[in-house]
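Bumping with the actual sequence this time:
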Amino acid sequence: MPIELLLLYGAMGGLASVLVAALLRPWLSAVGRTGVTPGATHLPIPSWRDVLEAGTHVFAGGGIGVLYWLSWGFAAIVTVPWWVRGLAFGLACSVTITLPLLLAVALRAKMQPRMLAALLLEWFYTCSLAALACAWSAETAG
């Protein structure tokens, strides 16, 4: 598994999660985020905050690619298909990295539970999509 390929696929998984977030945001608009409102007829212009948030997800996806390479992508689990290995790795990244960080930020900033749930969901599918992309890359490259 070349690390460059896993970086690329992890970043693509992070970018895919940004696209999923853009599709789900109209239904999650009640949590206080700016963006498209249900029934809106115009497209909002992305702000610098949106660009930085998308860049953060892409960068995190690349980081998950590096972690996948360093851990050999759960290579010891051999009796399952690639997507199970990818989902397991994404869940492990979500639980060990994102959950503690977001809980610490939520406690410090006195974040509303709905906002915390929306952020946890966004970062869960960032981790999952990046890990799935890396697992597929490792499966097809070998």
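The tokens above came from a reply further down the thread. Residues 3-141 form one domain.
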